[in-house]
Amino acid sequence: MLQFENSWRFTSPGPIPPAIVGVFYGFIEKIAQQGDNKRIVEWFKAAFSGGGSYSSSLSWAWSDLSDAMGRAAENAPLFIEAFWDTCHGLEAEGLTVPRTELINKVLAVPSLLRHPRHAGDPGHDPRSPDPISRSERARGPRDQSGSHAAGNRRAQQDHRRRNG
Question: How many beta carbons lie within 10 A of that of residue 36, not counting itself?
């Protein structure tokens, strides 16, 4: 569980931008390729939705996950916590998950997360400056057309076509 302002569990300090949600969706695709895709997608879906239903197929699981991530993105700290906690559980099962440095780079917050295993690394300095400029943070990652949301939608549609 992440440590953050307790009131943020009830009142969102702000959303995760759609382009960043798309990056996390891509991380989940890479994680799911390492094992039982449906089980992994369902695990993330449950984390983002707070539990609930089981999808009837893998393609529905991806679609439901996308919807759950979109809703969860309204509260950035809870979104990040859902992703982080699920990654820890999957890492304990032997799957490779994104390192804290990569997650922080995507979020453009150098020391938001500190993995206990990396906190004592001699070369790890959570106070190190973030190489991403403020203007790049505001824009977020772009697809080839220069659109943020369009790239996320296209990626989800492509994934649904590939996986039935």
Answer: 11
